[in-house]
Amino acid sequence: MIVVLTEEPSSAEMLKRVIPKILPDMLPQLDLQIVEHRGIGDLKAKLPSLLRGWPGDARFIVVCDRDRRDCVEVKREILEIAKPYNRPVLVRIACEELESWYFGDLNAVSEAYGVNLDQVAKKRGYRDPDKIVDPKSKLRKLVPDLMQVEGGRLIGDSMVPERNTSHSFTVFADGLRRVWRDMSA
């Protein structure tokens, strides 16, 4: 079983739709559970009880936003919390925020909201989704109708992992595939 722990409901909704696209050949045997939290503080507070109490030999993937924090420090904090429980935990960070992953596939955003964002993807400040400062605000300006949880659903439905240009998304997808391979070996 793979247990994905997210810091917010919108990322949980997006991942419910995107993970099957990342692991399409594994769907019949994929045992996946996604657990959403109400912020990074909530996730960190509940992590010990989840690791201690989860039955079986589950593998855990923690997905959180960088939010202008140091990636290495965020990962270290989470792994420190997990260490006493001796459970496999992979930490993946959306740089800067989940919306950076949406900027990585603006075609999905366009399809989800019926807006044309072709020219945005070509602009210098948007070519590297992980370096966009405050992507949530920038995306709201481009798509005023964007609602967080609904956006996770709609954009996740349209997202194509192979075309996503966000490096942190690619690192997440590669990590997920590696966890699956290790479980299947």
UniProtKB/TrEMBL annotation:
It comes from the Bacteria. Pfam families: DUF4276 (PF14103). This is DUF4276 family protein. It comes from Adlercreutzia rubneri.
